[in-house]
Each structure stands twice: as C-alpha cells, then as structure tokens.
Amino acid sequence: MPGLKRSFDTDAALRHVSEHCFTSTGSERVGIELELITYPSHNPSEIVDFPALKTAATSATSRGPLGAGSIISFEPGGQVEVSSVPHAGAASACMATAKDERELLKRLSEGGFSVHSTAIDPILDRPRVVGGQRYEAMERGFDSRNRFGRQMMRNTAALQVNIDLGGDGQTRWETAHNIGPMLIAAFANSPMAAGRPTPWKSTRMAIWSAIDPSRTMPALGASGYVADWTNFALAAQVLFMKATETRFVPITSAFSFRRWIEQGHELGYPTEDDFAYHLTTLFPPVRAKGWLEIRVIDSLPAPWWRVATALTCVLLQDADALDKAADLISKSKDLWTEAWSSGLDHPTLAQAADACFVAVMDAMPTSRVDITTASAISDYYERFIARRRTPADEQIDLMSAKIGP
Question: 48, exposed or middle or buried, with CB in 10 Å at 0-12, 13-18, 19+?
Fold first, then answer.
C-alpha cells in the first residue's frame, strides 16, 4: 500500500526484479497452465452458474484434489485454469497435466459443464461471474481505455508454458521472445467471435495486443533481461492502486509507475509491495515471475497443447535444435502483428514454423519428449504445418461449410 514518504526508487525496482523475477537460473523445470472456456452443457449460450461450476470442479470433500497435483483456479468469465506443479522437463509436465485435465473434464461433465475447443468464447461479452475488489478495479481501469480489457478477462483462454531460465538467462530471455510470433502463428485457434469470422487467425492475441501496449507489448530490449523487465515495468501504466487491504482504486488516466515514483499520488508514494503488485498486472508475451511465463499460445484441445508445450521447451532447451531453425526464426521474430493476423498464411512465418517443427522432430530421439507427445507433434506437423494451416483454418472451414455457398 502507498506510503506518505518516498521510500522506493528505480534502483530499488531494479534490485527487486533481480532478486524476485529471475531466480531460476541453472534450473530446467517446466510448468503448464491450461485455460478452458466453460459453458453449461445444455446451452452453450447460457451464462455459467459460477457457484455450480466451482463446486463441480473443486469439490474436495467428494472428489479430492487432482491426482497429479495441479491447482484449479478461475478466471473472471468462468474460465477454468489448470496449473501444474513444476516438473523436471516437458515429458513429465505433459503427462501429469494431461492426467489432471482428463480428471477435470470428467468432473465438469458430471456437473453439467462442457468446454469450448477454441481460445475465445463464441459468445462475446459474457458477464464477469467471478467477483472481488481486484477484478472490479482492474475492469474499471481497462474500461477507461477501451473495451478490449474486459473481453480479455471474460472471453479469452490461453496455454501458458512456464520454464526456468536454464544456464544462460539472457539467451533464454531473447529466444523466448524470438520464437513468439512463430508460436502465435503455428497454434492460432481463435478466428471467430460472436459467431462470425474476425480479421485475425488469433483473435485472442489481437485482443490482448489492443488492451494497453504499455503492459502487453514485448518486453525485450537491449539492456539485458533484468534491466529490460525493470524498464518495461516502470514504463507501464498503473492499472489500479491498493489503497487498503480491501480497497482498490482504479487509475483511469495515463500514469506510469515511473511517474508514480517521481511525483507521487494523492494516495501516497509507491512501496516495494506496490511494485510487486504492479508486476502482476503486466501481460506481455513473455513475463518474468522467477521463471519465464510464455503467454503467446492460444488455448488448444488435447493433444495439441502438448505439441505446443513440447515444441516451446525443446527450442528453448536444446541448442542444436534451435540452431537448425535459427535463420528462419531471425526472419520471423518481429512479425507479431502478422502472426495473429495471418497465421501461417504469411510465408515467412510458415517457413519458420516448418523449420522449427522439423528441428524439434529431429531432436526427439534425444530430447525429453514422451512417446504420446512425440506422436502428436508428428501428427500436428502433417495435419497443419506441412499444409500451412492451423486449427483456426479448420474452424473457418467448418463455419464456411455450415453457411454454404
């Protein structure tokens, strides 16, 4: 909470980032977060009854925790999130998360709920069903800018791959950003909203990018990963301030955290706790949380989310595989807008995706990829990448077939 006197400055911000946001150098753990858009099984357009959804998903008295240890949480629009514990590699992470996803889907089905296989709710503008002062302040802050923030909160779902920094944090920081456009394009899975095609193959990423560039643009700079993340956080607009433990004040005009440090606010000057809280409101393609949280991939049905997870991990952890695709990655690394707009219709992104898949498939005999996921990678390559298609293209084809000539 803000203080009456200045007690936190930019040097302290740099220290905080170094000590808390990049703590996993030398480690190679992997975690997975699956976000699933839910709806009542009897009527996909009906609003989710959140208490019933929560009971179906988490009733510990009758069902117990998920068997492989994943945590269940909920996003504002009723999206269910499965967050795995850290695992020693992609194989273990994929197998454990798949087990927990199956158990969750069984619980939801028995409770009268189903999940969409896309990354954006077909019924746009659902109400927020999860309450709380934080979400209310966040939504008011977003609404003062545009409509996209509330759409992100209520209507989108992603696959998030969490990976430690490995032996060279700077290289992994750069690589995670450089493969971002290719990952968006290769796994685009949200081409429609409100029952109609949009101009984008990944409408989810288009929405995210439009919220507030100061908090959603790539954080990669030229100063090294600690300074990059610090500078990004200081330049980002303050979304809300935590005035008390129960009172959150939305900030509805442009007001960066750096400005808050330098000029203060009527509520006071920021503390280190305020900075730490501010970091939780930043949503760039790659976020530093002690590990790297890679946020660019659309939510995908099984087994395709395993493909995206393994591809990401192998490219980040296997220097030889990365080197084989490095030339085409370097050509596609800045094509963020083209990635969510065109997917693999863009030739440079299609070539980069093909090179990355081939490199990863070549590396599978020696990489830590389980048999089920390895088979799914090959299937995805033949069904999509080799044909310059993604799940978004299949959705578009299905819609076209329903509409007819």
Answer: buried
271: pLDDT strictly greater than 70: yes
Give ∠ CA 82-397-127 in degrees, rounded to 5. 45
CB-based contact 333:181 (threshold 8 Å): yes
* pLDDT digits 0-9 by tens, 115-174: 999 999 988 778 899 988 889 888 998 988 888 989 999 999 999 999 999 999 999 999
404: Cβ contacts below 8 Å, ≥ 6 apart: none
φ, ψ of residue 286 to 5 degrees: the values are -125, 120
Q: What contacts 136, CB < 8 A, 6 or more positions away?
A: 248
Closest C-alpha to 71, from 14, 110, 32: 32
Alpha carbons 35 and 37: distance in angstroms, whole number:
7
Average pLDDT, the chain: 94
The answer to whether the CB of 357 falls within 8 A of the CB of 218 is: no
DSSP characters over 253-308? S--BHHHHHHH-BTTBB--HHHHHHHHTT---SEEESBSEEEEEEEP--TTHHHHH
Check: pTM over 0.85? Answer yes or no. yes
Say if residues 134 and 277 touch (Cβ distance below 8 Å).
no
In tens, the pLDDT along 39-75 reads 999 998 888 999 999 999 987 555 567 999 999 999 9
Distance CA 140, CA 250 (A): 6
